[in-house]
Structures are given as C-alpha cells and as structure tokens.
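User: What would this chain look like folded?
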Amino acid sequence: MKVGLYSITFLGVWYRGEALTIEQVVDRARDYGYAGVEIDGKRPHGNPLDWPTPRCRELRSIADGEGIELFAVAANNDFSYPVPEVREAQICLMRDLIRMTADLGAPTLRVFLAWWGVTRHPQVASYDIAKRLWTVVHEPFPPEEIWSWCREALIECARYAEDAGVTLALQNHRPVINDHQDVLRMVREVDSPSLKVCLDAPLMPDRSTDAIYQAAQDVGPLQVLSHFGGEFERLPDGAIRGFDVFDGKVRGDTNQYYRDFVHAMRVIGYDGYLSYELCHNLPVVDGQTVDIAYAHQQAQLAAEFMRNLIASADHSEPPSASPATFGGPA
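Assistant: Here's the prediction, encoded as structure tokens.
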C-alpha cells in the first residue's frame, strides 16, 4: 500500500488563504514523503476545462520528474438531481474528467452517486447550505427513483471510462449511498468492468473491528482506491495521534480503526493508495480560521502516521477480528 495526497487539502477552501497550484502540490507531496497525488476535479485544481491534453501531459512529465505518481482524479459529481438537464450536464462533466484522467496517465477516477456541494465564504467554507438545499430538492422523490437516475448516468459514464481505459471508483459517500453494501449493489447493477470500489473507513457507519474486516472481505478485489482524513497531533513520546472531526466536532480517536482498516486491506491483498484529505471545517483561533500553515502541518503528520501504520501491518498479524468474519471457524 502507498500513501497519497489528495489535492483538496491545499485547495484554498477550508483554511484561510490561497490554494496551491497543482505543481506546488506535487512538490509538497514529494517533500512530505507521499508517493502520489490525487487531483480534485474542480477549480482551481482539476476542472477539465483548464486541462487540455498538452497541459495534462506536461503535468505528467513534471510529476514523473519528481518521482510522484498521479494516481487518481476525484470527481465531485451529482447524478441524483431531479432535473434531467442537470444530470445531463453532470454526464458531460464526467466524460471530460474521464478524458483528463486518461491524458494525465492516472488509472482511476473517483465518483459519487450524489454530492451536496460546498458553499464558499471569505472566512470559511461550509457544507450546511448545500446539504439543506439538496434535501429540499429531493424530498418529493422516492429513494428508488433517485437510485435509478444515478444508475442510468453511471452506466453511460462507465462506457466512456471503458473506452478511455479509465477505472471509475465509486466511493461509499453519502447522500444516496449509506454503506458499502449500497456501493456493491450499484456496481452489480451497472455491471461494467470499468466500475469498481473506493471503500473509505471514515465513511463507514460501523467502524468496529469486525465491521471493517467484513467490509474489506465484501469488496475484495473490487477495491481500487481509499482515503483517510481527520487531524493529527504529535504526542510527547513522539507518536502521532489521529482524531476524527465531523461537522466541526471531534468524534474520537482514529488510531484503532485506521489500524484495523490497514490490516484488513493487507489481508485482501490491496496494494493501492490510501489518499489523505483535509476537507472539513478547521479550528478557529482568535476569531480567524487557521491558515495554510495548519494544512502543511497536517499533511506532514498524516503522511508519517499512515506510513507507520502500513509498516506495522507489513510486519504483524491482524488484530483480533472474529475468525468468522473471513469465513473461518468461529
């Protein structure tokens, strides 16, 4: 397994200050010990309108020169919108993102079924407004109808991906998707060799040891991409502690479930990327949201934290999940 840096960390959305350029993100990834970069598919980083084929190839050459792999692009698509013209516009965006992903030489494009979006303010971004709007717009429609809109759009996009030699990785991200079983259901219904799975531990509703091992077993060889997030601090003994932040609130320690997840990925033979993303409301100090220095600190700590977990998983036995989780004797 390899540790990657998702460029949303330096998109200029969640901290106070400007975004880094993608070239600068590549430089930071190299400096902080990441093996690759995942490009967020929106401005100012990865909107395909800004990335014609020659520019994609130039960036690929720059990344190769730095020893950094461009391993994925991340779409921020919504196939669930009730207005057909909006869904068709989303399919057009996806088709161009697929083209951009292929031009970059990246194997994978992360996709959603649905996405609330983010509103941006001078001080800090927020999910709240977009979430409320999404709920109002979708309230009149039954879940199965929304599901069918998403399936129809994803079937079309999977054809474009297959033609381009790109793999779509469907993430277990709300809304519409509630858990990894929903992801697997959609993968079955689309039935394309170009649609696989992006299972992320922080998005799982149950992150107990047994649940993580069962989910890993369920997705198996379909797993092609994963992310980790949260914030990190260095303890007095030099160890790094990770903690979850959701809707601006600390939800607890991440060390145990990330340890379980890395072990579970090793058990199923996953050797792809664990991509770090810093994409939530950050601390406010003296009335000001923290600046880009905080993002740099977190990116450095996250890389070290996950490299250590992977090294530990490579030299130890999995923790005590129930043997029945993997089909063995209970």
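The first helix runs from residue 22 to 32. If you want, I can go into more detail on any region.
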